[in-house]
Amino acid sequence: MTNADLEKLVDTSDEWIVSRTGIKERRVAPDGMAVSDMSVIACERALEAAGMHSHEIDLVILGTVTPDFKLPSTACVIQEKMDLPNATAFDVVSACTGFINGLSVASALIETGAYKNALVIGSEKLSSVLNYKDRNTCILFGDGAGAAVLSASEDGSGIIGTYLKSDGKLRDLLWIKDGGAVSPVNAGYAFEGDDKINMSGGDIFKVAVRQMCNAAVEVIEKAGLTSDDIALVIPHQANIRIIGAISKRLKISMDKVFVNIEKYGNTSAASVPIALDEAYRAGRIKKGDHVLMVAFGGGLIWGSALVKW
Ligand code: UT7
Q1: Which residues line ligand 1 (CB under 6 A)?
Q2: Nearest to 61 by CA among 34, 97, 25
Q3: Ligand 1, atom 7: nearest CA belongs to which residue?
Q4: What is the distance in A from the centroid of ligand 1 to the CA of 132?
Q5: Which of 15, 205, 210, 267 to mutate to test the pocket of ligand 1 (most atoms within 8 A of CB)?
Q6: Is 156 left (phi over 0), alpha (psi -120 to 50) or beta?
Q7: Strands 117-124 and 59-63
Q8: Which segments of 200-299 are extended strands (E)?
Q9: CA distance readout (Å), 125 to 54, 86, 130, 216, 247
Q10: Ligand 1 centroid to 164 CA: how many Å?
Q11: Cα(89)–Cα(76) distance, rounded to whole angstroms?
């Protein structure tokens, strides 16, 4: 869906969207394609890249806020579709930091020795929770999926630090109010857009810049490193101006920051793994590089993960 397509739906313009967000296009999954279906494609490509068979996976963690069903977890649906008989599978509901939270949990569980090979997925069908009459939100978000395989390593490579934080006091800055147990959407529900994403963009912007920087500094310093040691930053793709502000504050130049927001918009939990995959396949990541992932989203919630490749 291009900005020109959105001009036909709401009072907006390509010029406004590009200059305020950096977004030119976003992907919209067709009817009948659910988060599990997009995830399967991402998982198959991740397993192929890792040279691994599905039966070797013993842990599946999916970050999503747009599950196929309320019950069971979509990770269990993926387990069945992907033929992962030796795994335990569950979802994490951490909005745009879903992949980072998933990485953190998978990494910790692998460190205990209880699990060996994890599939960590970020996947969203945000088009299913967008109000295409609300120009504040419908221009920003898109659908997509990304996945990574994590395995135990002994050579010092891998996830060397993670940082997770949230502030539930700010939960109504970005939320879907209706449709849960507190405010069910039953027959006779009068649609007012409260069963779709509502967002106070300007308030979130400021917190996003501050807390993504904090999250980045926390993992970098804890690892005994400085910004100069970071070869590549994979930030959550929410707004090119947020990404630019982070680059400036962290003193990491934009040529070390991966950006693909123009093609996909904000895909929430899928944003970081899609960017990681594109960066890797484009040859932007070499053995031994320190790669910093950092994200921010509804909760409000934020987090980072530092990887030695
Ligand atoms: O995934 C993580 C969570 N989400 C985020 O990180 C989002 C963070 N926030 C943002 O990215 C930005 O705040 C937005 C892109 C959402 C909005 O940009 P902004 O520069 O903060 O614009 P604004 O909300 O202050 O709006 C400026 C003007 C307003 O008009 P007035 O009141 O100045 O007359 C809006 O009504 O732009 C108007 N506007 C639009 N105009 C054309 C808002 N949306 C649109 C639109 N097209 N789509």
Answers
A1: 12, 16, 20-21, 96, 135-136, 139, 174, 201-202, 204-205, 208, 238-239, 242, 266, 296-297
A2: 97
A3: 201
A4: 15
A5: 205
A6: left
A7: parallel
A8: 232-235, 290-297
A9: 24, 27, 10, 28, 29
A10: 27
A11: 5
Looking at residue 78, its amino acid is I
236 in catalytic set: yes
Distance between Cα 235 and ligand 1 center (Å): 20
Q: How far is the CA of 199 from the centre of ligand 1 (A)?
A: 10
- 266 assigned to active site: yes
* Rg of the chain on CA atoms, in Å: 19
Q: Are 299 and 63 in contact, with CB atoms under 8 Å apart? A: no
Distance 204 CA to ligand 1 centre (A): 10
pLDDT at 192: 76
pLDDT along the chain (309 residues), means of 10: 98 98 98 98 98 98 98 98 98 98 98 97 98 97 98 93 98 95 84 90 96 98 98 98 98 98 98 98 97 98 98
* Strand ranges (E), the chain: 59-63, 88-92, 117-124, 144-151, 158-166, 174-175, 198-199, 232-235, 290-297, 301-308
CA atoms within 13 A on the CB side of 9: 17
| pLDDT at residue 285, rounded to an integer | 98
Q: What is the DSSP string of 250-262?
A: HT--GGGB---HH
Backbone angles phi, psi at 74, to 5 degrees: -70, -25
Q: What is the pTM of this model?
A: 0.97
Query: Which of 3, 239, 266, 290 is labelled catalytic?
Result: 266
Q: Which of 76, 96, 138, 213 is catalytic?
A: 96
